[in-house]
């Protein structure tokens, strides 16, 4: 059965202040993650944690190479926001489950039904194939 986003979960995740690990956030200003991360931090008021292969700092926020590298002081992670190729996102969803994240958000165009099902089975909220910068307008954010 295909995943369907619950509008109540969408709104709750965007309204509840929390810590978002943004996987795929790099210093490349041309990537969607770059501006979306600013929206999440500056408009929605979330703490952001960049996660990228080199562990680069982005938007003045310390970056990490993987979710497992994020220190205990920066946990729990409320949302793991995934800007990755759909073929690679399953491994990140599994990492999100392993580090005790509360939710995974697969960005617009990122679809992995099996990973979404694993996350739901582990008790995480799941949002797939949408972007908070687009959905925020629906909720007056």
Description:
With about 140 residues, the protein is of the alpha/beta class. The protein has one domain: Rossmann fold (3-Layer(aba) Sandwich), CATH 3.40.50. It is built from 5 helices and 5 strands. A 5-stranded parallel beta sheet has the order 2-1-3-4-5, sandwiched between helices. Helix 3 packs parallel to helix 4. The mean pLDDT is about 95.
Number of helices: 5
Please tell me what the overall shape is: globular
Share of β-strand residues:
15-25%
Span from first to last CA? Answer: 31 Å
User: Which whole number gives the mean pLDDT?
Assistant: 95
Determine the structural class based on helices, strands and strand pairing: alpha/beta
Number of domains: 1
Runs in which pLDDT lies below 50 for 5 or more consecutive residues are none
Indicate the percent of residues in helices: 25-40%
CATH class: Alpha Beta
Please identify the oligomeric state: single chain
Instruction: Report the strand count.
Output: 5
Fourth CATH level, the homologous superfamily: NAD(P)-binding Rossmann-like Domain
CATH-level-2 architecture: 3-Layer(aba) Sandwich
Based on CA atoms alone, the radius of gyration comes out at: 14 Å
Features:
alpha/beta; Rossmann fold; 33% helix; 141 residues; globular; 5-stranded parallel sheet
Task: Summarize the model shown.
This protein is α/β, with parallel strands linked by helices and 141 residues long. The chain has a single domain, classed as NAD(P)-binding Rossmann-like Domain (Rossmann fold), CATH 3.40.50.720. Helix content is 33%, strand content 16%.
List the helices and strands and how they pair.
Blueprint: H1 7-15, E1 19-23, H2 32-43, E2 47-51, E3 79-82, H3 86-98, E4 103-106, H4 113-121, E5 125-128, H5 132-135
Parallel strand pairs: 1-2, 1-3, 3-4, 4-5
């Amino acid at each position: 059965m295909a995943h369907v986003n619950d509008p109540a979960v969408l709104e709750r995740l965007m309204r509840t202040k929390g810590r978002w690990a943004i996987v795929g956030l790099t210093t490349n200003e041309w990537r969607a993650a770059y501006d979306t991360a600013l929206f999440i931090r500056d408009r929605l008021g979330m703490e952001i944690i960049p996660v990228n292969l080199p562990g680069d700092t982005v938007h003045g926020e310390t970056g990490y190479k993987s979710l497992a590298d994020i220190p205990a002081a920066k946990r729990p992670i409320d949302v793991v926001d995934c800007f990755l190729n759909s073929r690679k996102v399953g491994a990140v969803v599994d990492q999100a489950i392993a580090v005790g994240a509360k939710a995974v958000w697969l960005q617009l165009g990122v679809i992995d039904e099996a990973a979404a099902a694993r996350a739901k089975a582990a008790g995480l909220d799941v949002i797939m194939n949408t972007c908070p910068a687009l959905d925020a307008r629906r909720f007056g954010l």
